[in-house]
Amino acid sequence: MSPAPRALAVPLAVPVIVTGTAVLVAALALGGVAPAYIVSLYGKYLCYGILALAVDLVWGFGGILSLGHAAFFALGGYAMGMYLMRQIGPRGVYGDPLLPDFMVFLNWHALPWYWHGFSHFPFALVMVMLVPGLLALVFGYLAFRSRVSGVYLSIITQALTYALLLAFFRNDMGFGGNNGLTDFKDILGFNIESGRTRAALLVATGVVLSLQYVLARAVTRSRFGKVLIAVRDAESRTRFLGYRPESYKLVIWVLSAVMAGIGGALYVPQIGIINPGEFAPTNSIEAVIWVAVGGRGTLAGPILGAVLVNFAKTLLTGTLPEAWLYALGFLFVFVTLVMPKGLMGLVRMRRRDDVPGAAAAASAAKEATG
């Protein structure tokens, strides 16, 4: 009778821990027990957890190693940044009620057509999901229909995010060029610099991450998820059984992109800026490392990996900033060679060892086969 409650507790533990720690950190900061910057810092970690979860869906369960998922994260961030810029109104440096400051500085005379509608939060929220999802749909349809896979697909995804990086650096794109979008004032009418607003954003991020985890778990445990794993492990055999692997890949690819876009949208108001640097291929590579450290194909592991790796980054860049990239490279090599299943793999091994009779049964099986 004990396995059922234990199996139920495992999926519930992650949302409870994520949301609970977000509420706790927010409460400690509002109560003056913890410094205020902890709220934005932990909020950033949870946003990275959303990105890591999105990468795990396509890599851990679909077998698609994406080196360009930061593009979807950044596009969601830019959509939210456009909404926040429209909320500034005449309070900008140049006092223009319609044009953002960077457009006035560049002598723009009218708001570009693709900026219209972003003064309304519901429209911006739709764009946060629609823009990354649409890009993923077009890219995925062309790539998967052509049966591009493996290292070739990884290189193409990296080329995609690099192309967007170069495009958004251009001033004539209308997204702030090198400086990006910043100097935000309000979100939904609340002062974005207020401690209460930042605490609310942190809790909202924890809730969204928890909901995305529940959704990802439901998808991967469903019949669709079982077929997706079959595509990952034996695509040709799955095709011969009558399934269309490209369709399953496309669905999980688009879902993952939308999830990453939502993470980017939550990231921007907490950090206070979005610029083309978010498209950098190194950001996508770091996301892959988070997943590898936490445990690919575990859902909970990538979230843990994102928080721990970025916490280590915060500590190390504050003391030895030039050593961080070397430490990150060493960490990836170490995990690949010593812990191929990541931290969650160690937890699962420990859990099996704790089960009464498991060690004896494994030993007996080994003797019987040896």
Please provide a written account of the structure.
This is ABC transporter urea/amino acid/sugar permease. GO terms for molecular function: branched-chain amino acid transmembrane transporter activity. The chain crosses the membrane at residues 12-38, 67-85, 121-144, 151-169, 199-216, 250-268, 323-343. Keywords: Cell membrane, Membrane, Transmembrane, Transmembrane helix. It is a multi-pass membrane protein. The chain is mainly α. The chain has one domain (3-362): ABC transporter involved in vitamin B12 uptake, BtuC, CATH 1.10.3470. The chain is 71% helix and 2% strand. The chain is built from 15 helices and four strands. It has helices spanning 3-30, 37-61, 70-86, 101-105, 121-145, 150-168, 195-221, 223-233, 235-240, 245-271, 281-294, 300-319, 324-338, 342-354, 358-369; strands spanning 181-182, 186-187, 190-191, 273-274. The strands form two sheets. The chain has a two-stranded antiparallel ribbon with strand order 1-4. A two-stranded antiparallel ribbon has the order 2-3. Helix 3 (70-86) runs antiparallel to helix 5 (121-145), helix 3 (70-86) crosses helix 10 (245-271) and helix 7 (195-221) packs across helix 8. It is globular. The two termini are 33 Å apart. Residues 1-9 and 355-370 have low confidence and may be disordered.
